[in-house]
Design goal:
Order of helices and strands: EEEEEEEEEEE
Largest sheet: 7 strands, mixed
Structural class: mainly beta
Helix content: under 10%
Strand content: over 45%
Shape: globular
Radius of gyration: 14 Å
Distance between the termini: 40 Å
Number of strands: 11
Length: about 130
């Protein structure tokens, strides 16, 4: 069973940065694609960024939602079973609960939450103006 736990959320001011972490356990993580989603109050959960599985390589392709516009970077460290989301130049519209998702041999492009097998409980990110 895959267990995901996010950390790193908090309250920041507009223009500041945060780095979210997602620690996975119970798996050989290099066979799992991973993604960050977010959900703001009253809105649907949406894909922020996805990263492919690496297998026996150290390389993974990435995919970003248009609204990240170069501000966010997703990365992974399979030795630590951890996926990161570096968020720079945060804006009030980025306020949401951020969720980590994973799926074995999944696609970094998958936008539908129901197609991801495992989820963390989420971490709140709040950006004040």
């Amino acid at each position: 069973q895959v267990h995901l736990v996010e950390s790193g959320g908090g309250l920041v001011q507009s223009g500041e940065s945060l780095r979210l972490s997602c620690a996975a356990s119970g798996v050989t993580f290099n066979t799992y694609a991973a993604a960050w989603f977010r959900q703001a109050p009253g809105k649907e959960r949406e894909l922020v960024a996805g990263i492919g599985w690496t297998g026996n390589t150290n390389y993974a392709d990435t995919n970003y939602a248009e609204f990240t516009k170069g501000r966010f970077t997703i990365s992974r460290d399979d030795a630590k079973n951890t996926v990161y989301l570096q968020m720079n130049d945060l804006k009030p519209d980025d306020t949401a609960v951020y969720y980590c998702a994973a799926g074995q041999y999944g696609s970094r492009y998958e936008t539908l939450p129901e197609h991801w097998s495992y989820w963390g409980p989420g971490t709140q990110v709040s950006v004040s103006s």
